[in-house]
Write a structure and sequence with these properties.
The protein has 443 residues and is an alpha+beta fold. The chain has twelve helices and 19 strands. The radius of gyration is 29 Å and the shape is elongated. The chain starts with a strand and ends with a helix. Bound molecules: oxidized coenzyme A.
Amino acid sequence: MAVEQEIRVPDIGDFEDVEVIEVLVAVGDSVKREDSLVTIESEKASMEIPSPFSGVIAEVAVSVGTRVSEGTLLARISTSDAETDAAQTARTREGAATEAGDALTAQRATAPRRADTQPPRADAIAAPPRAPAAAAPSPPTRTSHASPSVRRFARELGAELGRIQGSGPKGRIVRQDVQDFVKRALAAGGAPATPENVLQVAPARAIDFSEFGEIEVAPLNNIRRIAARFLHRAWVTIPHVTQFDEADITELEAYRNAQQHAAEKRGVKLTALTFVMKAVVSTLKDFPEFCASLDESGENLILKRYFHIGVAVDTPNGLVVPVVRDVDRKGLFDLAAELAQLSERARSRKLTQSDLAGGCFSISSLGGIGGTAFTPIVNAPEVAILGVSRHALKPVYRDDRFVPRLMLPLSLSYDHRVIDGAAAARFTTKLKDVLSDVRNLVL
Ligand code: CAO
């Protein structure tokens, strides 16, 4: 039968009224006897408090910042009868052999730490499973072994232990591992810890909006929450610049309209976006650094010899970016059909992880909706993204007179660590040249 037990701070020697600096378990976690529950820290040292029982955490009574002393309630744990007996026996034996403080000291060196893990399935929905941008760390590991002094050292540098590979016996993290981790992160031009804490900004103040009028709370769905994380990381870790230009697509549009009949016969709709995809690939061939990613060290550019293009799709549940593969090898009608099929699957939430993975460059088209320009966020680990806005007839001065031309606004955002402004201006110039002469796309 399950029994609920209280776990209180044991005799911790000189420690009194000390701060909880890490809570290593959450309600519902299964823990084994001697697994660490919390880390406490005084002026002089830090220590982990182990669980005296195996079982499932029913309540966590402290949080980071709580001050505790001997006897303070830390948690309640649901255990079996047998486990309670075993724990009691163990404690009696331990009490006879050693002082509680010593036991803690011995324990804290080996107790596993429970790092927060993100649900992998959720990550996969909005984010292709690719290496994050240069500054992004490797995914957190589940447990980390390190001495209190190494833990403290890592905390001082803002390095999250769960993300550090230990080189000591049994994977134990030693001081050198922390130093190497921070060096690598700095070399990558990013944060020593997680992208979320790159900027030490004051936390947002909680506001009770109902004081000002009627409100409704609408929780963000999974896609939005995950996309928010990736967009935020890209926004804070990539130095963005956006280059604007306009392509004269008068002839392209005439050609597109002329093809509509043939397109309809094949059951596809040929929109300007299909031509833009082809034009982008043609331009990428001349500018390989736009079809690339920085590696984890931030010291090498991985140039991709394939042309898989991500296309931002607006769905009722939020933005997703499925990838159209080998755009260079497909014809306009095939691309139009694939784009329609992918966006339909995106809107009915039928995309698989492989539909979202492996892009080289993304296009975000708001042309069907409106607007004259915008600044898209680079879809890391890609290094550039093209925004396309609504085309408009404009007077263009040519041969001593104004003539009406159909102009397509282009907004190219790029990672300035990899791409110079001059290269970006050359890229959009080439792109608009390709778009202005339809022969570039169909021949
Ligand atoms: N200028 C003027 N009209 C345009 C246009 C442009 N640049 N691009 C498309 N259109 C027109 C199309 O021709 C179509 O016209 P008809 O209805 O008369 O045939 C209409 O707009 C709707 O096009 P569409 O959106 O169905 O097709 P698309 O190929 O242009 O785009 C897709 C497909 C999936 C990209 C789009 O539907 C979409 O979801 N866009 C939003 C992307 C987004 O949210 N981006 C923002 C992300 S933040 O960076």
